[in-house]
Each structure stands twice: as structure tokens, then as C-alpha cells.
Amino acid sequence: MSQSRFKTNLPLTHRFLAQGLRAREFPKYHMVGKTSAAMTAAMTGEVESELEADIEKQHFGYYKDDYPWLWKEFKTAGYVTLLAEEMPSAWGKEKGAFRNQPTDHYLRPLLVQAKKTFGNEACVGSTPAHQATLDYTRDFTDKYHDGLMFVLTSIHETSRTQRSAADFAAIDSDISSLLKFWQHKQLLQNSIVVVFSDLVDVATEGGTEDDTVLPFMSIALPPRINDQYPDIMANFKVNQNRSSSPYDLHQTLLEVLDFKPRQKGQYSRESSLFHEIPADRSCQQAGIPKEHCRGKYTVHPEI
Description:
Layout: H1 3-9, H2 11-20, E1 24-25, H3 37-44, E2 57-58, E3 61-62, H4 70-76, E4 80-85, E5 105-106, H5 108-118, E6 123-124, E7 127-128, H6 129-143, E8 149-154, H7 165-184, E9 193-196, H8 202-205, H9 210-213, E10 217-220, H10 225-228, H11 230-239, H12 246-257, H13 283-286
Parallel strand pairs: 4-5, 4-8
Antiparallel strand pairs: 1-10, 2-3, 6-7, 9-10
Helix pairs in contact: 1-2, 2-7, 3-12, 6-7
């Protein structure tokens, strides 16, 4: 879903992110590949072709348990982890991408069983799958509100361009309600909220301007960051106008566990958004493929 489609289809969510949570949007956030590339890169720091996990072949595909998933780092650090998707796995397998349960709480088996029981993957009984996914996320965060939590919730229904305005309105209302619930419960006082979209289908969304071919990404930081780390807020403001990617998002989330206050932004493809990204970093240096680049792709040496 592109930036423009996100704002059009999810206006309540977008408004609450901007006004209620004062989230920073990154309008030059790029794709790094097709299908699940953005999710994989954000959660591992690599794309599928680079990952060298011990993949176990099966008749229906392969498992991805051994990928260096970000939630493993957070679990090691003492966080309770959750992965919730309302459609077949973002990594492309009807039965799921994992042989073993990947996180402490994992919604997918429930939805697979619901499909067998009710014969429809779009609903769990009379409850739309996206709503069941958000309810599951809400219950998890309510239960563990006093502890450390890593939550990854994916709503694929937002990417279906053939959905009606009423469908999008329901999804928008449910997502914004979850965000408001977190704020009401004061769960965001020490939390970082990242909202990002995956693939932008130019064929169906059309357009050539950046906001129609680049995905949406925003980050809301705890209010106290303004006072404790003014440099972070200054760097965020600068980086909003610098090309970034899921690789940078991955490094940013890793730094939640191990913040390096004096580190400078990198020319390499993983540069934490907590630090100023060099203004002249090219798409090539950032790991953004040429076909997805909306800026300078290469840096030519001076002659």
C-alpha cells in the first residue's frame, strides 16, 4: 500500500498517528523487493536471496525457523513476543512459514483451524479475520502491560485494492481503535510504535509521484524521548527527508536493545534512524534496488 493509498483508505489511523501519537512519517521510505521483501528485510536485515538459513524442504515449501528474526533478539533480552497475521503467512505459506512456534504467542494456528471449521479464511465465525487479529493483539498487550513486549501484527486485508470503501472503513476504525486503546491504557509511555506498509502495486495503484509508488512508514516514540534524547528527535526530523528502507528500520529496532548514542549515520545499507543518515547516501549504498529507487542510485567518483 502506497503512502497516498494509506492516507485515503485509512484516514482515522493516519490522523491518530499524526495528531494523537505525533508519529514521524518517512516519505522517502523505499521498497527493497517484491511480495514479502519489506517484512523480511525489516525483521532480519536481509532479503530472502541472501539468507543462508538451514531451510528444510517440504512438499509444500520450506520452513524459515532459522532465519535471524528480530523477535529472537527481543526474546533473549527478556521480552514476551507475539506474531499475529490475519491471512496466510506474510512469508507465503498456507500452513505457515514455521515448523515450530516462532514467538511466545502465535495466532496463525488458530486461524488455520478456523478456516477448517468455518470454511472461510476471511472470518473467525462471525468475526472478520482482521478484527480477530487486532483483538488478539489487544488482549496480549493488556495481559502483559507491565512487562516488556515485542509485537508484530500484520493486516494483509489493507492491500486488497478490490475491497469496498465500507470494508476499508471497518479496518480503519479497528486499527485506530487499537492505537487509542494503547494510549488510554498508557501502554505507549515506554513503547515505540512502527506502522509500515509492504509492497506497492504500481499496476493497480497507478501514479508516478513518490507518494504513489513509495510505501508508508511512520514511527511514534515515547513522549519522554523529547526531553531525554533531543538529538534523536533532531535526527528523526532530518531523516524524514533522506532515503531509507526496511534495512534501516531493522537497525533502528535493534538499537532499541542496544542504543549507541554517539554513533554516526552510516553509508552502508543499515543505518539506524536514531542517527542522521548521510545526505549523499545513494540508493545503491542503502541496498535499494534500482527499479525501486526514487533518488540517486549510484555515487560516481569525481574525475
